[in-house]
Amino acid sequence: MKIRRLCIALLLVAAVADNAIAVTAPKAVNIGSDGERQKPVVLVEDGVAVGCRDKSVTSVEIPAGVTKIGNGAFYGCKALASVVIPESVTEIDWYAFYGCKALASVVIPAGVTEIGESAFLECWALTSVEFGGTVAQWEAVKGKDNLFNVYVHATSVKCADGVWQKPVVLVEGGVAVKCLDKSAASVEIPAGVTKIGNGAFYGCKALASVVIPAGVTEIGENAFDGCTSLASVV
C-alpha cells in the first residue's frame, strides 16, 4: 500500500512539472527618486534626435545609432555645457543647438557631411570645435553651408590632420559676402574677389583699414555701413 501511494505521489509531481508555466523576470527599468520610470532625455524618432525633454540639462549623450540631429532639437537648452555626438551622426540640421549659451566645446564626428545654417546660433561660449575627419573633409562640410561658420565663435577647427582656420572674410563665388570677425581692426580682402556684397562689413565698428584687391569691380550697397572707425581704404 505504501509503495502504491508513493508511486501516485511521484506521478502527481511529474504531472505538475509538465504543466508548469515559465515565469520571466521583468526587465530592469530606470527608476527616479520619485519612484517613477525615467524617460530618456533625448527624444529619438526614426534615427533622428528631434528634441530634448529637459531644457535644464547640463550634459547630454546622444544615443548611438542616431544619424541626424534634427531642426531645433536642443533649441533653448541654455544650461547645456557638454554634448556627446555618436559616430553614427551624418547631419546636424538647422538650429540644432540654437541658444545653447553654455555650450563651450563640441566634437563633430568624421561622418558628418552637412551642417545646417545657424546650427550653433547664439552659442556664445562655443570656442572649441573639433572634427574627427581631415581638414579637406571639413572644407567639404563647411562648403555646403558656409554660413555655419558665421555663428561659431571658434576661430579654428581642430581636425585629425591639422587645424582649419576660419577666414576673416567669408567669400562665396568670388563675392565677399560677410566679415566673420566684427572686432577686426584691419582686413585684406582675398585676391580673386570681384565684388564686395551688400552690407558685407556692416557694423564692423573697429575696422580702421581695408585693402581691396585690384580685381574688385563692384561694391554693393551699404557694404561698409556702420564702420565708424574706417580711416583707410586702399
From TrEMBL:
Tagged with keyword Signal: yes
Signal peptide: 1-22
InterPro entries, alphabetized: LRR_5, LRR_dom_sf, Surface_bspA-like
Keywords recorded for this protein, A-Z: Signal
Record carries keyword Transmembrane: no
Name assigned to this protein: Surface antigen BspA
Organism encoding this protein: Treponema saccharophilum DSM 2985
